[in-house]
Design a protein that fits this description.
Order of helices and strands: EHEEEE
Helix content: 10-25%
Strand content: 35-45%
Number of helices: 1
CATH architecture: Roll
Number of domains: 1
Low-confidence stretches: none
Structural class: mainly beta
Shape: elongated
Number of strands: 5
Strand order of the largest sheet: 1-3-4-5-2
CATH class: Alpha Beta
């Protein structure tokens, strides 16, 4: 990797709280220590559902993954921080943006933005049918 293609290090978003923090383990990775994209996608879905469920005041279901970009690899031992924010609401739906940052656990502290995604959830009732969002 040349200096022109090196990933720029960043910092965790200031004045925002992570909705989820997790460290991938060897079972979440291939034999080279690279974490499976599907495992990351599952964690992003969990992180996105947290503000969605709060806004819905109850159960939500994922109805769409609108965008998903893996920007950098994730390794076993990275501490991942997931930041999620509602970007749009409809009658029953909630669209959430999720950003994922990795704190590399090596000799020098590195923070890298590794993933960003946009997902849509729908509020559901006990019968798992869509329901209107409560008014604010």
């Amino acid at each position: 990797m040349t200096s022109s293609t090196k990933t720029p290090f960043t910092t965790l978003p200031a004045h925002r709280d992570a909705v989820l923090r997790v460290m991938p383990m060897p079972a979440d990775a291939n034999i080279h220590g690279d974490v499976f994209g599907g495992w990351i996608m599952a964690q992003v879905d969990i992180a996105g559902s947290i503000p969605a469920a709060r806004r819905a005041a109850g159960r939500v279901a994922t109805v769409a993954v609108n965008a998903f970009q893996f920007k950098e690899p994730v390794f076993v031992g990275d501490l991942l921080s997931f930041y999620a924010a509602i970007v749009k609401t409809g009658t029953t739906s909630i669209t959430v943006s999720v950003e994922v940052y990795a704190e590399r656990q090596r000799l020098d502290a590195e923070v890298v933005k590794v993933t960003e995604a946009t997902l849509t959830y729908v509020a559901t009732d006990e019968a798992r049918r869509s329901r209107p969002l409560p008014t604010l």
